[in-house]
Amino acid sequence: MKTLRTLLFSLSIAGHAISLSSAQGAGNTGFVTVLLTTGDKQSLLADQDPLLWYPSQNPQANFVIDTSKTYQTMEGAGASFTDSAAWLMKEKMDGAQRSALINDLFGNTGANLNYVRIPLSSCDISTDDFTSDDIEYPGTDPKLEQFKLNTNHSFSLPLLTAMRNANPNFRLVGSAWSAPGWMKVDNSGPVRKGLINGTLNSEYFDVYAAYLTKLINAYEIRDIPFDAITMQNEPAFTPDNYPGMNLTAEQEATLALAVGKAFQKKGLKTKILVHDHNWDIAYRAIRVLENDTARPYIYGVAFHCYGGDVSAQSTVKAAYPDKEIYFTECSGVFSSGTFSSNLMWNVNNLVIGNTRNWGRTIMFWSLALDQTGKPNVGGCQDCRGVVTINNVTGEVTKNEEYFTLAHFGRIVNKGAYRVDSTESYQSVRSVAYLNPDKTRGLILCNDANQAVSVSVSEGNRVFYYTMPANSVASFRWIDPNTKQTAFMQ
Which ranges does the record mark as transmembrane (predicted)? Predict the structure, then answer.
């Protein structure tokens, strides 16, 4: 951000230098801060000269913001803190590198991320196979006497604490990939701890609910509570080379009932989310919610991006308006697209499209991976993290996923409302928010190969901006009824 002293000398407006005092005298009604990222990487979350509002009794703007029309509240943005991300941060970075990365991800001068997903067992992006109650085949532990928070979880705890210290709004959503092998049937038996393939044994629904309750409580007593949990990652998909578990919609409803009762008995306030799978099988989420007994325990539905269209979120919301929508996973891959094309798709679908279709969170897959998409134990072989950590030097590369999240995180606070705004003008799309402190946030995305000049109005004032080709811009301004005496930082 340019200093106020610099800005007091001059502002470039429509190609003309205007002093701040003369601009004020001309009747401007405040300032708008701007962050810009361009597909050619010439600007990467770069502060631009603040814009001036101008009074207009009847502004015919391209984008009209109406904060009186509010929609869902926003929880935040982030990614999954996988076992592999934790391992890379712990083993491949020195203390200074680690601290800098945490600030870049979670600090308010970085991406300001605040919502992190934790795999509750090993997944594809892990260093080995584990749960927190692994029993040697063919043993069982129905009383959970051998339960112990796995060491893979344990070494991530100090990093989670550091993340929370960097952002006071930091919260977690947990996601299970597999029950302990001994709770499953039709699985891999003694191979890889029984975590591959299979489904939950019908005799163990209550035991698994007790297991998940103990797991959430184990974090909570370490002062790391979970805001929400998805009981099964991608329950309609059974991977054959990394931990997973198939659940039918009927099974998931039964499990939601068991987990809901177990949480209630323990006094846990953790919200229960179902589905945690793709847009193209949203009908499955509706089938879960059709269970009248389980539905009161279900807070909402979580979605992934790997099939279908984001509008499916609105289909579920229309069917069950009292259930909230979360977006919990999408991964970039090294082999697909360019920085520019990926950035445009991410912002249009996962920020603008997702939140216009009731999403309360914006989340990518692994927070970090190395330059080869590792470590992993199966599944995706070229997944890209939000950041890439060099496995030799510990140096960090911020990927297009980072800039996607940062354009949201820097201007939208926890508890913000999405508010009404004109959806599009030419090749530019928009989404707008009203923060708890009454500041406004606006994100514009221009996915065309040419610049587009736009006007934006709120009430009886308007500002102007030219969106570069293939660019994303985030704007923030204060309540028009508040006197502004300095630029926001």
Answer: none
3 state DSSP class of 362: strand
Domain count, the chain: 2
d(CA 253, CA 281): 16
CB-CB neighbours of 51 under 10 Å:
20
Three-state DSSP state, 152: helix
CB 472 within 8 A of CB 44: no
441 vs 462: CA distance, rounded Å: 15
Is the separation of the CB atoms in 468 and 480 below 8 Å? no
Q: Which helix (H) or strand (E) holds 460?
A: none
Based on the number of CB atoms within 10 Å of its own CB, is 297 exposed (0-12), middle (13-18) or buried (19 or more)? buried
Instruction: Please check whether residue 70 lies inside any domain of the structure.
Output: no
Which among 117, 171, 126 is positioned nearest to 330, based on CA atoms? 117
> Is position 68 within any domain?
no
Residue 234 placed within a domain: yes
pLDDT tier at 484, thresholds 50, 70, 90: low
Per-position DSSP letters for 248-308, written without gaps between them:
-HHHHHHHHHHHHHHHHHHT---EEEEEEEEGGGHHHHHHHHT-TTTGGG--EEEEESSSS
Tell me the residue range of the domain where 12 lies. Answer: 4-62+450-477
Helix (H, G, I), strand (E, B) or coil at 225: coil
Query: Measured between alpha carbons, how far is 106 from 95 in angstroms, rounded to an integer?
Result: 16
How high is the pLDDT of residue 18?
A: 32
pLDDT at 23 over 80: no
d(Cα 376, Cα 394) in Å, to the nearest integer? 18
**Residue 152: its pLDDT value, please?**
76
- Indicate the angle between helix axes 282-289 and 249-266, nearest 10 degrees: 50
Q: What is the CA radius of gyration of the chain?
A: 24
Amino acid at residue number 341: S
